[in-house]
Amino acid sequence: MKQIAKVVVDVPVMQTNQPYDYAIPPTLIDRLQVGMRVEVPFGPRHIQGFIVAIVNEPDFEGELKEIIRPLDLEPVLTKELLQLGEDMADQVYAYRIHCYQTMLPPVMKAKYEKEFYLLDGHQAEDVQIVFQGEDVISWDRALEIEALPQLLEWKKQNIVDIRYLVKSKARVKKKTVYQKNISPSEIEEEMNQLSKQAKSQRALLEVLMAIEPEAWLTREQFREQFDIMPRTLQIAVEKGWMITEDKEVYRDPLKNRHFAQTEAKVLNEGQQIAYQAVKEKIDSNQHDVFLLKGVTGSGKTEVYLQLIGEVLAQNKTALMLVPEIALTPQMVHQFKGRFGGEVAVMHSRLSTGEKYDEWRKIKRGEARVVVGARSSIFSPVENLGIVIIDEEHETTYKQEENPKYHARNVAIYRAKYNHCPVVLGSATPSLESRARAQKNVFHLLELTERANQQAMPDVRIIDMREEFQSNNRGNFSQILQDKIRDRIDKKEQTVLLLNKRGYSSFIMCRDCGYVHECPNCDISMTFHMDTKGMKCHYCGHEEPVPNRCPKCQGNQFRYYGTGTQKVESELQELFPDARIIRMDVDTTRKKGDHERLLAAFGRGDADILLGTQMIAKGLDFPNITLVGVINADTSLSLPDFRSSEKTFQLLTQVSGRAGRSDLVGEVIVQSFNPDHYAIRYAQNHNYDGFYRQEMALRHQSGYPPYYFTTQITVSDLDEKKAQTKIYEINAKLRNKLEGQTIILGPSRSSIARMNNRYYFQLLIKYKQKENLHEVLKEILDASQKDNAKGLYISIDTEPVNFF
Ligand SMILES: Nc1ncnc2c1ncn2[C@@H]1O[C@H](COP(=O)(O)OP(=O)(O)OP(=O)(O)O)[C@@H](O)[C@H]1O
Ligand SMILES: [Zn+2]
Ligand SMILES: [Zn+2]
């Protein structure tokens, strides 16, 4: 009986979404399991693949190739994740291999290397010189010694051939540890035989007398605790006093930090009702989706914590998703403080080694609670008891690159599979989720009051048009200035938000109006005050500010847009004595910057925290009594049907940072559209009112949640080719789609050229899927040939950002 492995290979083309059959060589029969990575031959190359099934009969007729070797000792993907990857690939129009790779830490993605090897019987002298007595030489080495042309020539003459290797980048960190291997009486004997000069050895023997027989100690521990140097340890090993081993250790980014234990709070009535409803589902192993809608500061986090506590008590595991920027030390502290070492934390600021280690802790069941950003929804936990998504309305839960999955959908998939509840929490739920609760697809749970009985902060809207008329051209209205002054004097803290969504600073020629654009993209370049340079945020192109206008040779530029740096200097001028912390992409570039700045503000090292969107979430500092929004409406004017929703959410979230403890909070919102409904409803903390009005508008214009949307984008270096293709797709869709489907476009994308590629798009709106899925699959299948020529087609279901 021959064993056959079905392998999804690392070749992203549509046909390979189906697994390939490989023979399992006899030596590997007992070692290979479903979910392991393997190295397999594919054409002339060796590539990585995932075993998705092991069967007895092949589907493929013909000679099967053999698996070369396993890349893992045990499966890295569970049965659940294998199934999820297959279904997800289908739903989001992605390659199965990309789905599997997305589920694993980046170090586990294969790295391919090439090497030349000698074919038999060619030992000519010049060949020997290159190979230096070995029978292989790596591609890199060949490049280094400039032997590449020669080797390629030999390849033509059949003297050498090329082989492709799969290299694993995953490295386990190891440390040498020591254990004593000598009894007390032997120690005495050794002491007696030592010469008087051997002081350090004597000292070590004394230590060995004192320590526990089972203890494993590192070199650092010997040095720090007992002042014993590595050299002495080595002698001890040679003499057989100690044994040594290389033990695996985890890279723990938080190892030097202490988390004070926190206790569960007594839940208030609203929290208790919410907790109880979810707990019932946990107890009875039932799937359900809850939408926990709680005003800012209502204590949603405490509900999450106690639910996770319950899940752990029942010997299950928990997934807790938090937006990347809300994953602050404060947030982490809440979880580590309650559950200690049971918690693994996953976010993009970890090094790849740290990510790998956190992942292994989860895989081995050593950490049963995962707190992390979007991709941690794929954590290899088993026996899942709850999935929680905090700030569920955040669009960052949707991945914008392939595979274009939404973590909320993956959460529901996994919870169904594991028969457990999902909790979606937010003060400002997405319209989609709120509407689903309306239809009882989700269960609505509400917390309508703040946990500490504190009133919601008073929000005042300032009409900036009037400020302009009264000749205040700055960024700060008179009232906001007065309030800031007042807080500085009272030693209370202020948070200032600069709404930068859809917004950047650029330069324009004062004489002819020329705007400096990126040479690769049809978009103006962003001016950066710190480097005094221009940068394109789409392709990364950088250049200095031009001396003269390329169009009219004028040398006067106007700097547009309110960069945080510019606002900061204005603020410092207004309040020379104020201590200001600025938080934006420029000040949080390095690992740990974000944490450091927030910690400093939390300690009271500054009076004002000035920042972009990244400060709107998760801050829970008692001394913040004033929140100012400098420009409420920059996000209103985006060409995106969600712009009102996003503005409402942002204003509500940032207002919620004020007055969370005993001190009363106050919010000042500056706007040029003070009567806009998104701003008015945010002022009154009226989510329900906003929801009703926005739903009416969406209904009228036929947008989600009344319609589903799918966007198709085509891009190519050649503008004509991209354009022809989108029209071809358009024709096919209109011809084949049934039911009430609406197609918007085709049109140029609003950034028509990016990195020298031209983009065209169309948007499909539909109520029922009908045959849409099949038609889209056909289009993708047919795109294979184009793909190879550099024309890309991408399908995005429920896009969250419209350009
Ligand atoms: N039952 C309780 N008794 C006393 N204090 C509580 C209780 N529950 C929560 N708190 C406190 O109330 C404050 C706000 O809670 P929390 O940060 O969980 O709110 P939240 O709903 O997550 O808010 P946001 O949406 O603004 O992040 C915290 O300081 C928390 O410690
Ligand atoms: Zn000019
Ligand atoms: Zn560019």
UniProtKB/TrEMBL annotation:
UniProt-listed Gene3D superfamilies: P-loop containing nucleotide triphosphate hydrolases, PriA, 3(prime) DNA-binding domain
Write the record's keywords in alphabetical order, separated by commas: ATP-binding, DNA replication, DNA-binding, Helicase, Hydrolase, Isomerase, Metal-binding, Nucleotide-binding, Primosome, Zinc
User: GO molecular function: any one?
Assistant: DNA binding
Q: Which residues cross the membrane?
A: none
User: Sorted alphabetically, which PROSITE patterns does this protein's record hold?
Assistant: HELICASE_ATP_BIND_1 (PS51192), HELICASE_CTER (PS51194)
Q: EC number(s) on record?
A: 5.6.2.4
Keyword Isomerase, does the record have it? yes
A Gene Ontology biological process in which this protein takes part is: double-strand break repair
Q: Which family does it belong to?
A: Belongs to the helicase family. PriA subfamily.
Q: Which NCBIfam families match?
A: priA, PRK05580.1-3
The name this protein goes by in its record: Replication restart protein PriA
